[in-house]
Amino acid sequence: MATTTTSTPVTAERGSRPARRKPRKDTRSGNPIVYLAALVLIGLMLGPVLYIITGGFRTNSQITTNPAGLPDPWVVSNYADVLASSTFWRQVGNSTIAAAVTTFGIVTLGVMASYVLARYHFRGRGAMYALFAAGLMFPITVAITPLYILVKNLGLVNTLPGIILPQIAFGLPTTIIILVPFLQAIPKEIEEAAAIDGSSRLNFFWRMVLPLSVPGLITVGILAFIASWNSYLLPLFILNNQDTFTLPLGVQSFASQYSVDTAKVLAFTSLSMIPALIFFSAFERRIVGGLTGAVKG
Amino acid sequence: MSSNFGVESLTVAEGARANRRRTGGGAQALPPARSRRRGIGWAQRLEITVLAGPALLMFLGFVIFPVLMAAYYGFYRWKGYGVPTNFVGLQNYVTILQDTAFHQALWHNAVIVVLSLVLQGPIALGFALLLNQKVRGQSIIRVLIFVPYVIAEVIVGTGWSLMLQTNGAVNDFLRSIGLDWLAHDWLANPKLAIWTLMLILTWKYVGFAVILFLAGMQNIPEELSEAAAVDGASFWQTQRRITVPLLGPTIRIWAFLSIIGALQLFDLVYIIWGQYVSSTAGTSTMATYMVTEGRNAGNYGYGNAVAVVLFGISLVIALLYQRFVLRRDTEGALTGGR
User: A31-68 burial, b for 16+ CB within 10 Å, e for fewer?
Assistant: First the structure.
């Protein structure tokens, strides 16, 4: 975001005719219509989320008699029940392991391949980049049926590696597309200086490239983590055993199992979205910044 | 990993492209590597193999190989056990193309593609233009409108289906503000269900479009709108003549992502309407058809054939789009547009 903060207060003074733009102070604080629009947008965006969260604090009879109301009184038993259940925590554990290993795999393999694509000149480099870029256009949906058969033949059905390995593979295109320009932006002079100092290219990779690309690695890491945390189709095919369920499958099976206990379903649902939300808001700058920023070499 | 990941991954691709655009590179072309004069020795080949090999193997093994295998399995009638032996040639494809359930799914996908563009595009553009001004608390607004996008499809589906039940929160809210005539059976009414789906899709993905457009707007030099202001252009003139045309490349990439995502839509439909209801409610998609008729029915050969059809349709659309729409973006960043 650092690149975007160049504010330009000079307009008013520079113009020979009166500029239509409002003076600086007003522009800063913005126009009431803008705030109103932003408020409406945020309300629409957050309303359903707040409904899910507050719904978990109500009883079923409250929800039946007044579906759109607020909790009165607030009850914590739904949340307490979910937090006390071993099913929930087992699913949290499965989701965490799957997301963490997936993220590690994607980032490690991705940065290595991106380094080659960004810094080595060899025949087939363009083809390799095009191959990964093509993978970007096709989400896992089109490959899910044969992928299930492949995982089954590998004997990985009902295991976490059965979802982790495909997730790493399908996450690589993103990672590579975002990291290649990142690594290319590291000035050539640094590499030359390292070469003069007798440092090998692999050494340069370890000593210079990795530390310099940490912001990019965090961005792709967060995206990989959230994608894995939310992933539904692949676990739906691969994991049939309750013990290996990740949270999305858990939410769905909980919702059908307790379909009459709406309040508890809402509590379970809101608890399972918390980690992704925390992760996202903690690193929001990185993600949005990753869209516009570049490495500072 | 759900289809969600596809879209998310492409977010970043757009970012990378935006970066390159800003530095003056073409949007599509691979930037030239920092080449070295000397040829590559075996040591360097070894480095390349060691570094790029694992990623390449994973990608070929778990992405490319399954897609190729789908083409092979699609020629068989096969229950998924052992080696397929019952070769049926193109019979699976003939069945798909004659199945009215598939026709309906294809039609629904087409409707979803068009409506996604028509609904989300203008809404997102409007909000991005508003939020692109120097608003206090812009970063918090950005985080908040991105929230639905970060939440899992399963949660969105579960939450919305509870709210949209006939005696759920949405109808209750509408009645309480005196709009009884607006209260409907949102999920089961076949005339309404696809619009309900569009509402949920718009809610979930419009934040992504807003963020993307805002990121694109930040690559537009501020001097241009300053110059326009000096020349006495009004706010809306500036937006219409400068911001929106210069945002062209971003909009076109967003539209591409939206089209591909809409073609492969699965999670939300499957979670809200389930495998049986989606076709009667008029919300089935090619992907839900694939899962219902393939895996759930135990017809893996057939499911693979559907996957091939889905892949083919997406590929053709992607290539046509790249050829006729995105190509303009390689012709220069600032002049692209119109």
Answer: eeebbebbeebbeebeebbebbbebbbbbeebbeeebb
Q: Give the number of domains in chain B.
A: 1
Tell me, yes or no, whether B245 lies in a domain: yes
Range(s) of the domain holding residue B15: 3-21+92-331
Q: Tell me which residue of A217, A291, A130 sits closest to B30, measured CA to CA.
A: A130
Question: Do residues B1 and A98 touch, judged by C-beta distance below 8 A?
Answer: no
- 8 Å CB contact between B258 and B116: yes
Kind and range of the H or E run holding B77: strand B76-77
Tokens read off for B312: 């083919």
CA distance B170 to B155: 17
- What are the structural domains, with CATH classification, of chain A? 85-292 (1.10.3720.10)
In a domain, B63, yes or no: no
Which residues 187-216 of B have a C-beta within 8 angstroms of A? 203, 207, 211-212, 215
Q: Give the dihedral of Cα atoms B53, B58, B60, B65; nearest 10 deg.
A: 150
Q: How many CB pairs under 8 A join A and B?
A: 393
| B250: closest CA of chain A, how far (Å) | 12
Backbone region of residue B89 per phi and psi (left: phi > 0; alpha: psi in -120 to 50; beta: other values)? left
Nearest-by-Cβ selection for A113 from B15, B56, B80 = B56
Neighbours of B51 (CB within 10 A): 23
d(CA B83, CA B52): 33
Q: Is A294 on the interface with B (CB under 8 A)?
A: yes
> A140 is written with which tokens?
């896992």
ipTM of the complex: 0.78
In chain B, residues with a C-beta closer than 8 Å to the C-beta of A119 are 33-34
- Rounded average pLDDT over B43-52: 82
Q: How far apart are CA B118 and CA B124, in angstroms?
A: 10
Determine if the pTM surpasses 0.90.
no
Looking at the domain assignment, is residue B130 inside a domain?
Answer: yes
In a domain, B184, yes or no: yes
Q: Summarize pLDDT for A43-62 with one digit per residue, the tens.
A: 888 888 888 888 888 877 77
User: For all residues of chain A together, what is the average pLDDT?
Assistant: 78
In total, chain B counts a number of residues equal to 338
Nearest-Cα residue of chain B relative to residue A170: B63
CATH number at residue B191: 1.10.3720.10
In this prediction, residue A166 carries a pLDDT of 93
Across the interface, which of B3, B134, B143 has its CB nearest the CB of A141? B3
